[in-house]
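Moderator note: this is an archived Q&A kept for reference. The question asked for a predicted structure of one protein chain; the sequence and the answer are reproduced below.
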Amino acid sequence: MDTGLVAGQMHIDGDELRSKYLKFFAERGHAVIPSASVIPENDPSVLFTTAGMHPLVPYLMGKAHPAGARLVDVQKCVRTNDIEEVGDSTHLTFFEMLGNWSLGDYFKEESITWSWEFLTSAEWLGIPKERIAVSCFAGGLGVERDEVSYQVWRKLGVPDERIAFLGIDDNWWATGDEGPCGPDTEIFYDTVGQPCKNGPACKPGCDCKRWVEIWNNVFMAYSRQAGQVLDLPKRNVDTGMGLERTLAVLSGVETVYETSSFRPIVEALIAKSKYTEAEIRATPDLLRALRVVSDHLRTSVFIIGDERGTAPSNQGAGYVLRRLIRRAIRFCDTLGIPAEAWVATHQVVIGLFANAYPELRQNAERIAHELGVEHARFDQALKTGIRLLSKDIEDLKAAGSAVLSGESAFKLYDTYGFPIEFTVELVAEQGFSVDMEGYERRFAEHREASKTEAAKSGLADLSDESVRYHTATHLLHAALRNILGPHVFQKGSNITQERMRFDFSHPAPMSKEEVAAVEAWVQKAIDAKLPVTSESMSLNEAQNSGAIGLFSDKYDSQVSVYKIGDLSMELCGGPHVANTMEIGKFKIAKEQSSSAGVRRIRAVIS
């Protein structure tokens, strides 16, 4: 990106750009609203907030917003559909979107005029007018060509040679197949300063690298329903300006990774690499790896540290988070960055963004814990998984095959915790592919079997949190028998993602000292990082081995016996963590009576 005409013109960081943007529109009657959570609330259709307009859909559809009809915000966004593109100059998985909104108030002329003023006025951003070009909607879906926007741009002084009319694929914005939509006008920055070989045709829409989109003004006056484009009750404006791309333009740097929103993170990671910055920049694979680990760390911190933050898991948003962390750790290996050093760099991210997003500082302990636990999980699985996958690839080569079986791919996921996308990436690097149909078939079989296991084990669901609690009940059972005596036996359990409830035989209330001793016993077992293993055997063999099984009528003739080091051995249908270190901090919240001769413990882990 040759931004020479702007380089050095404005030294501005993310905090300053956010402040300027909010101030500009607040002075024009917009209410400043806070960023919504990056994990949508009450919206099962998406895992993350992917655009600035996402939290405002009900108001774009006609509902009155409590702050009024003019709004401005800076929205946290996560978008992972382009994850393979991360590493180029512009693609990110987490980004900030500056947006201003009109809910049935002003429309095209005011929106375009204010965008132009904010970008080009010396009082605000001062971008040279001759470096800006725009696109307008060429028509389609029963909506006419956008002559109004064109005339506004011409009145502002943008010449015809820097105005392009583009079709539905480029200048029509929609939330999805259904919902609010409309034509847009997009604003581009000229990174080169002269046309490419296409001459006069080199304007927005050209396939050269000259134009970078920095702002999008959507005129959301329609809604798509059952394939029809219908008028909304009100004409709305939804704008979005990417903070990182705009910083790159203002700072005169080549990529978003050179902006103030990234540079401290990048520098901290370079310092921990076995390569120098010059070596990394001279080697495309190393440079891409550096950008990936920087991007994925920033995104992981925002997902975990969000007010509705999640932990890595095997489903939903947690699964995406797990993939980001593990993918980053893999690229750390390319750079010679110790994974624990990558985890520790989360402190740089928090320091960089805590002023704008104080929830990151408030949740700093949780961020550190979840990143550390996931690193430990993956580190344990990685060595074995890579070795097995390498053997599978050698077998494919020997057999003259180019496709890894679905069964092998599923084993890597089920036994060693490899996301399927991760396996696909690794084998693709060797010129192979994965039998995805076979993998999906095995995954479906596994899901049905897991439902049965969960029902047997008293779990409300199969989330990582519930699985951690389930393993903790085994340790609690062993601790109670160790502290109170062998008369203790489990009488039932109930497990959710938030807590565990454990009933056991005991004739009297526990003393404070006994509760403390049990809690300490369980935590010591967790901190010992004991392996959790299972073995299939006959019911008689299990009973003769000393395994505890209180609900033998629930089991078939062949049973699974789970061992936690040398501390616990029980008949159980699973599922469990692979190592006690995954459980975290154990705390008994309450000990009380359940029924005659039965006590109940409620406990939480963090």
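Archived answer notes: The first helix runs from residue 14 to 26.
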